[in-house]
Amino acid sequence: MAEEEKNLTQDELQEVAESVPAPDEYPEGQAEALAESLDDPNVVDQAAVEVLKATEQGADTVPMQAFDKGVTAAQNTIESVMDHQGHNAHHGETTTVFGRTLPVPLYTAVFFALGALTLTEVIIAEVLKEASSLETIKIIILTGIASVKAFLVVSIYMHLKDDSRAYLVAFLTPVIMAIVAILFLLSVPATGGY
Amino acid sequence: MAELTHHLSAEQETASIENQKFAMWLYIASETILFSIFIGAYAVFRHSQPEAVKEVHHALGLFGTLLVTFNSFLLLASSWAMVMGLREIKRGNRQGMIRWLWAVAGLGTVFVLLQYVEYSRLAEEGVTLYFEGADSAFAGFGMHFYTPTAFHGAHVIAGVLWCLLVIWKARNGAYDGAPGRNHAGVEIFGLYWHFVDVVWVVLFTLIYLV
Amino acid sequence: MATASYPLRGQYVEEVKRPKLSEYLRWSIDHKIIGVQYMVTSLFFFVIAGALAMLIRWELLTPQTDLMASGSSYNTLFSIHGTMMIFTWIVPMFAGFGNYLIPLQLGAKDMAFPWLNAFAFWLIPPAGLLLILGWFVGPAEAGWTSYPPLSTIFSPDGQTLWALSIHLLGLSSILGAINFIVTIKNMRPAGMGWFQMPLFTWAIFATSIIVVLATPFLAGALTLLILDRVAGTTFFDANNGGDVLLWQNIFWFYSHPAVYIMVLPGFGVLSEVLSVHSRKPIFGYRMIALSSMAIAIVGFTVWAHHMFTSLQPELRIPFMITSMIIAVPTGIKIFSWLGTIWGGKLRLNSAMLFALGFLSLFVIGGITGVMLASVPVDIHMHDTYFVVTHFHFVLYGGSVFGIYAGIYHWYPKITGRLLNERLGKLHFVLTYLGFLGTFLPMHILGMQGMPRRVAEYDPKFQDLNVLVSLSSFVLGISTFILLYNMVVSIYKGKKAGANPWRALTLEWQTTSPPPAYNFVGDPIPFEDPYGYGTEASKAYLDAMEARFGGKPLIVEQSTEPEQASGD
User: Fold this and answer.
1) Which terminal residue of chain B, N or C, has fewer Cβ atoms less than 10 Å from its own Cβ?
2) For B52-74, what is each residue's pLDDT tens digit?
3) Does C452 score more than 80 pLDDT?
4) Measured between CB atoms, which of C213, C238, C249 is closest to A177?
């Protein structure tokens, strides 16, 4: 499209050069000035702009407008289809994880990961249910898995990974504060009892 | 607001999406703190009364764990449906988005219903919101359990209602990308819904597994 | 002559009519109307809460309980007094200033979310009503801190209404703060970076961050408190598996940062007023802006200094250190303000007098704050009148004097009329003297050991208490001078013109009151909001004056540093 425009412009330029009015149409002295200035590339550009303006005026006629609409509609259709493919390629109907390509979009892959992590959590909790000596390890593992799940949802489903840094600050600050507050409450002895 | 938004330029329109998303993130920030109080209260209870928590887990048994695990899957699936719906509307496919959002609302509803089933079972076991009495084996579990989960459940109910509102607006032609009708409404509902999901991820691990 | 350097688009609107009274009584999404709604509502609650303070002081004229029926009914006085002063006066009053001024200072048409803005305001009247309705079911009597078990077991039903009311007020300020943050981050005009923002805007920004992050702590604690009261839970009942310190911890997670919610906007007002009325650039702009942020952050780490008598001893020292550290950014501000007025041509009008009053009183309040932060002193003076006078010095001497300075400074912008200066000065003198008479003797009472929150006290304290009470009545009456001045000046005040103080911030570069959507054409911010005394700023102000008309209150004289210094 852009290339066509350029070609058109050069064709038109030649026309312009050929159609420079006869000298007698100009006041005295101006014709010479014009002839001289034609060597100046800027003037050529200006002339080209003028020609383009003229074509635009021509395009305002009804048949031209109808034709234009048709072309634009076709273009839009093509573009939207192309865009769709581009979109899909970007989001991916496939997802690459650790070098393997899965035949599902990223969001679906994350969903499977979340499900698998949940199952892992439940199994660990059930297996270690009675092992009170391993309780600390169990708590650490489970908290870690839950954090990974939360991280996946926040970074991918909530798009925090690619979004504005301000959102990240707005979210992380209270999370850190909450963790510190909870750890503080856990570390001070609770008053009361039975 | 209508007077102010109907003549926005495209540039201002983007700014308006950014405004709404940023506001939603700030709202989520304060909700995070709010939930942390309930989570903290439970954590302190779990720390000082581990036996009561064990008793409850025993009383619920494997069925209880499976029920709540299934419930977790429902919420995770609804989060997935939400993000797929958002993807559709970003592609301009409003019908596709509406289908996904029906799934979100449905899964959310089932989640709340199953939570009701679970509450009923707990109530039968004698776990109550009011203090069970110092001689009960679960003493104090009820209030520390029902407060965060019910508060979360209320957020799910509010989310389902919001979801229905978004569907209704979409069916009436909203979110078509025309000036003042961008997809910000879907996106900020999505942020809310995912946040409710994240809270559940934490509550599920903390209350049922640890 | 200078107009040429500021090509101005748009045209000057000759006279902007003030909105009709009825517009203030109904739902409106115009931030200027909402701002005034906030302020008037807050002033209403200020009068009620002030009347309660008068009753407290009346009761304390004698060592016995004689005015009130019992100690409990005395408890309700200071409980509602404190709650109203904090949650329905200082916080919403500054929110009102913020609402009115932030879009103007940013050259914006309105806040980012006008509808949300109106919604946040309309939560306040019902919340205030709930507090007042408490009287019909037995009002809250556990103090504004509402410690259990006073607030759970002993207090009547009004305590539940109190909690609901604070819930609503908290929601209101969170929504308002979200609005402020988004507006300030996303709606600054082209050419105004973060460090070209007016300092009042910086202060509101820092305040809003604290509101968003701290207020939910209170909301969570209040939810547990309400459950304890109505649903039979025992979160805070130490006899039944609860944790009584949990409330104190969570409450102060919120309420210590909340202290800065109440005073940071006052700092912002002070930065504006001192610079404009000294005709000097603000000293240490960046330090003032960043110290607000530093206070906001450090403010979250000091809460346990309220609990030196209840927390385990080994935690006292860390909190003592953080509490003292927070005096550093505050001190930076104080010295920056001193640097600002140093060598300036001070105009001692009412706004400036209150700003200087703020400066002097807040320093005293700050120093007693550092005293109380040190553990041995606090153990001695915990819950005495020393604490009472400390926080009245920072909240009355600081925040309320800041509000007064702000009222005298921006009233002309809001109404288009000037407040009466003679009444203003009378107001200042009575308030300042009344304040000192009320709160200075309390230091002595506190050090001698008079406990707060009691209706009966040792007769040996009576002399000073009579002095305090009589001074407080002067303080109470002085407030009505301001209210009278505000009402009368709407109709009889001198016309203010667009920019009576020749200030450089954007809210003055439009008519008074500003037209719908604030500016005709795009506002052009001056490169430095406090660049007073330069040729460029003079040219800018002359150009704006030519555009918007109106004579500045102070005509250029040889004493005006803008000419005298000639730099």
Assistant:
1) N
2) 888 888 888 888 889 999 999 99
3) yes
4) C213
- Which residues, numbered 61 to 120 in chain B, qualify as contacts with chain C under a Cβ-Cβ cut-off of 8 Å? none
Chain C residues with CB-CB distance to B134 below 8 A = 240-241
Verify whether the Cβ–Cβ distance B130 to C233 is below 8 Å.
Answer: yes
State the pLDDT confidence band at C498, using cuts at 50, 70 and 90: confident
Contact between B33 and A174 using a beta-carbon 8 Å cutoff? yes
Q: Tell which residue, B128, B205, C359, C149, has the closest CA to residue A121.
A: B205
Would you say residue B66 lies in a domain? yes
Residue C79 lies in a domain: yes
Residue C310 lies in a domain: yes
Taking CA–CA distances from A175, the nearest residue in chain C reads C213
Chain centre to alpha carbon of residue B202:
12
Instruction: Give A157→chain B minimum CA distance, Å.
Output: 6
Among A107, A171, A186, whose Cβ lies nearest the Cβ of B43?
Answer: A186
Closest-CA residue of chain B to C112: B19
Check which CATH number belongs to the domain holding B128 and give it.
1.20.120.80
pLDDT in tens, chain B (210 residues): 333 443 455 566 666 888 999 999 999 999 999 999 999 999 988 988 888 888 888 888 888 889 999 999 999 999 999 999 999 998 888 999 999 999 999 999 999 999 999 999 999 888 888 888 878 888 889 999 999 999 999 999 999 999 999 999 999 988 877 776 788 899 999 999 999 999 999 999 999 998
- In chain B, the number of structural domains is 1
Angle between helices B94-125 and B50-90 (to 10 degrees): 170
Q: Which of A153, A170, A174 sits opposite B197 (nearest CB)?
A: A153
Residue B59, chain A, CB below 8 Å: the answer is no
Pick from B30, B38, B134: CB nearest C212 = B30
Q: Which domain holds residue B205?
A: 10-209
Shortest Cα distance from A192 to chain C (angstroms)?
Answer: 4
Is residue B187, in this structure, part of any structural domain at all?
A: yes
CB C358 within 8 A of CB C401: yes
Q: Could you tell me if residue C11 is inside a domain?
A: no
Q: How large is the average pLDDT for residues C31-41?
A: 96
Question: Could you please report the per-residue DSSP string of A50-116?
Answer: HHHHHHHHHHTSHHHHHHHHHHHHHHHHHHHHHHHHHHHHHH-SSEEETTEEESS-HHHHHHHHHHH
Closest CA to C228 of C244, C217, C214, C215: C244
> Which structural domain range is residue C187 located in?
35-564
Counting beta carbons within 10 angstroms of the beta carbon of residue C14, is it exposed (0 to 12), middle (13 to 18) or buried (19 or more)? exposed
C100: its two tokens: 């009115």
The answer to whether residue B1 is domain-embedded is no
Neighbours of chain B (3+ CB pairs under 8 A): A, C
Domain residue ranges of chain A, discontinuous segments joined by +? 1-61, 98-163
Judged by CB atoms closer than 8 Å, whether chains meet at B131 and C246 is answered as no
Helices and strands (H and E) in chain A: how many: 7, 2
Is the Cα dihedral C234, C238, C240, C246 positive or negative?
positive
Residue A19 has pLDDT above 70, yes or no: no
B133 CB neighbours in chain A (<8 A) are: none
Closest CB to B147: pick one of C214, C227, C246: C227
- What CATH number does residue C56 fall under? 1.20.210.10
Task: Residue window 146-175, chain B: list those with CB within 8 Å of chain A.
Answer: none
Return the pLDDT at C11: 45
pLDDT at A86 over 50: no
In a domain, B3, yes or no: no
Q: List, in sequence order, the alpha helices (H) in chain B.
A: 2-5, 10-48, 50-90, 94-125, 141-171, 184-203
Is C30 part of any domain?
no
Residue C63: half-sphere exposure toward Cβ, Cα within 13 Å: 10
